[in-house]
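Researcher: I'd like a structural prediction for the single chain below. Treat it as a standalone chain; there are no partners to consider.
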Amino acid sequence: MQAKELALALQQRGADLPMSANNQVRIAVRHLVRAAYLLDWYGDLGNKNDVDDAYGVFGASVSQIAAVYDVPAVP
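Model: Treating it as a single chain, here is the predicted structure.
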Protein backbone atom coordinates (compact mmCIF):
# COMPACT_ATOMS: atom_id res chain seq x y z
CA MET A 1 0.00 0.00 0.00
CA GLN A 2 3.02 2.31 0.08
CA ALA A 3 2.74 2.83 -3.68
CA LYS A 4 -0.86 3.94 -3.18
CA GLU A 5 0.19 6.53 -0.59
CA LEU A 6 2.98 7.81 -2.84
CA ALA A 7 0.63 8.07 -5.82
CA LEU A 8 -1.90 10.02 -3.77
CA ALA A 9 0.85 12.42 -2.67
CA LEU A 10 1.94 12.89 -6.29
CA GLN A 11 -1.66 13.57 -7.25
CA GLN A 12 -1.77 16.40 -4.70
CA ARG A 13 1.32 17.91 -6.32
CA GLY A 14 -0.46 17.72 -9.68
CA ALA A 15 -1.81 21.22 -9.23
CA ASP A 16 1.61 22.46 -10.36
CA LEU A 17 1.31 20.57 -13.65
CA PRO A 18 -0.39 21.69 -16.86
CA MET A 19 -4.06 20.71 -16.95
CA SER A 20 -3.61 17.78 -19.37
CA ALA A 21 -0.75 16.31 -17.31
CA ASN A 22 -2.73 16.85 -14.11
CA ASN A 23 -5.66 14.94 -15.61
CA GLN A 24 -3.36 12.11 -16.70
CA VAL A 25 -1.97 11.82 -13.17
CA ARG A 26 -5.43 11.92 -11.57
CA ILE A 27 -6.71 9.15 -13.84
CA ALA A 28 -3.58 7.02 -13.38
CA VAL A 29 -3.72 7.45 -9.59
CA ARG A 30 -7.38 6.43 -9.56
CA HIS A 31 -6.51 3.27 -11.50
CA LEU A 32 -3.48 2.58 -9.30
CA VAL A 33 -5.41 2.91 -6.05
CA ARG A 34 -8.17 0.64 -7.31
CA ALA A 35 -5.62 -1.91 -8.54
CA ALA A 36 -3.83 -1.82 -5.15
CA TYR A 37 -7.04 -2.67 -3.33
CA LEU A 38 -7.86 -5.39 -5.86
CA LEU A 39 -4.36 -6.88 -5.54
CA ASP A 40 -4.85 -7.15 -1.79
CA TRP A 41 -8.33 -8.62 -2.11
CA TYR A 42 -7.54 -11.07 -4.90
CA GLY A 43 -4.38 -12.11 -3.08
CA ASP A 44 -6.44 -12.91 0.01
CA LEU A 45 -8.78 -14.96 -2.17
CA GLY A 46 -5.88 -16.72 -3.88
CA ASN A 47 -7.16 -15.88 -7.35
CA LYS A 48 -4.00 -15.82 -9.49
CA ASN A 49 -5.67 -14.77 -12.74
CA ASP A 50 -7.30 -11.75 -11.14
CA VAL A 51 -4.06 -10.89 -9.31
CA ASP A 52 -2.23 -10.94 -12.65
CA ASP A 53 -4.85 -8.66 -14.24
CA ALA A 54 -4.76 -6.20 -11.33
CA TYR A 55 -0.96 -6.21 -11.39
CA GLY A 56 -1.06 -5.28 -15.08
CA VAL A 57 -3.30 -2.29 -14.32
CA PHE A 58 -1.08 -1.35 -11.38
CA GLY A 59 2.08 -1.46 -13.50
CA ALA A 60 0.52 0.52 -16.34
CA SER A 61 -0.61 3.18 -13.88
CA VAL A 62 2.87 3.47 -12.39
CA SER A 63 4.30 3.87 -15.90
CA GLN A 64 1.79 6.60 -16.75
CA ILE A 65 2.58 8.54 -13.58
CA ALA A 66 6.32 8.13 -14.14
CA ALA A 67 5.97 9.41 -17.71
CA VAL A 68 4.15 12.56 -16.61
CA TYR A 69 6.79 13.31 -13.97
CA ASP A 70 9.57 12.31 -16.42
CA VAL A 71 10.89 9.58 -14.14
CA PRO A 72 12.01 6.25 -15.59
CA ALA A 73 9.69 3.47 -14.50
CA VAL A 74 11.28 0.41 -12.95
CA PRO A 75 10.61 -2.70 -15.05
